[in-house]
Amino acid sequence: MGKIIRRTYPFEMAVGLLLLIFALSFFLAGQLFSVSSGSLISNEYLGMFLVSAGTIIMVLILWEEFLFPVHIQHHGDETIFRNHRTKLKIQLVFYLTIPAIVAFIYMEYDVDLIRFGIWAVVVLVAPVISKLVSGINNYNDFLNLSPSTISYKNNEKEGAFELSNIQEIKPIRDETKSIIKLQLFFKDNTDVTIDLDEMELEAFYESIEKYLSENYSKLIK
Questions:
Q1: Nearest in space to 192 (alpha carbons), one of 175, 174, 169, 208
Q2: d(CA 141, CA 157)
Q3: What's the pLDDT score for residue 5?
Q4: Topology of domain 142-215, per CATH?
Q5: What's the pTM value of the predicted model, to 2 decimals?
Q6: Extents of the domains making up the chain
Q7: C-alpha distance across the termini of the chain, in Å
Q8: What's the rounded Cα separation, in Å, for the pair 207 and 158?
């Protein structure tokens, strides 16, 4: 059973913000078409609706807090921090509708190529750069902490370590004092660095630090 550490926005607030963004997008969408706003007919209003819909879909992918709570998975005495796989699948389905909307508008409407091109690039590229590439690259990554072991997977790097073999755990922090790496020093004089900042675990930094302080305090230096 997962413990939620970051909830979604309250339903009323989320709907209100989405409606506001939709209304603004609809109001500005007329500038993407090669007709004056005073001569728009019902068919062009459909185009404006589609532009707003594409914008809303982009927002839902970028602003994950609208739909996706962040939660920690507990399995027995193990605590698992990982990329939200269900979230990524839903985001990919959402994203696939954007190129369909862009292609339909381009083929069916007389558009202002420059303005339409700018909008199309934004809604097509922003989700990929900001969320989807990182989510796909880190789809299988995880950090698993338990009273007896530490295990992780980060792309091609992975490992499982018995706590009894660890001499020291050194948290490495960024300028905001968040733990972004864990350096494990072993009793055989070897060491391993777990790069949390490469594993899309930013939402879990505070929870990871709390777990470390509560369970590994004797090892942390």
A1: 169
A2: 9
A3: 63
A4: PH-domain like (2.30.29)
A5: 0.79
A6: 7-70+84-137, 142-215
A7: 32
A8: 21
